[in-house]
Amino acid sequence: MAPASPAAAAAYFGASLAFHADVSDVAAVLAADGDPGFVVLDSRSTASWEQGHIPGAVHLPTALIPEQAEQFLDKSVPVVTYCWGPGCNGATRAALALAELGFQVKEMLGGFEYWAREGFEFETWEGRERPAVDPLTAPVEAADCGC
Predict the structure, then answer these.
(1) Residue 128: helix, strand or coil by DSSP?
(2) With the CA atoms of 24, 26, 30 and 36 taken in that order, what torsion angle do they form, in degrees rounded to the nearest 10?
């Protein structure tokens, strides 16, 4: 199978970046001082949320978005959705539901799984935790992957 033309590839990959953010980019913006310019939305169940979530995230399960999104979110502030991880399309479904309601939205690739595997701090009902970096997902001794 032949590759796409450079123009088609540029259009595709440019569009992909408009729809997706990765875990390390979201974490870097959240760690910087000031307003990140977006809100992070955890679209998982309450049991999943309690197991661990990104600090400062809004919890709104996907099924509740149509009825409750406007109570918790401001349409002038972009939303970054996440769910469990690459094997789950909950963040995609949440992003679709938000877009249909008129929200600006991106999906965070990797979800909570890669947030934890890359060693970023998360919250549980017991407090905050920072797991060890999984060397298969992020460099252990470097500040970033160099991507």
Answers:
(1) strand
(2) 150
Phi, psi of 58 (to 5 degrees): -90, 135
Bridge partner residues of 22 (DSSP):
109
pLDDT tens, residue by residue, 16-72: 999 999 999 999 999 998 899 999 999 999 999 999 999 999 999 999 999 999 999
Query: Which residue type sits at 59?
Result: H
pTM of the predicted model as reported, rounded to 2 decimal places: 0.92
Distances, alpha carbon 124 to alpha carbons 23, 48, 117, in Å: 19, 10, 16
Q: What is the H or E stretch that residue 72 is in?
A: helix 65-72
- Rounded to whole angstroms, the Cα distance separating 128 from 142 reads 23
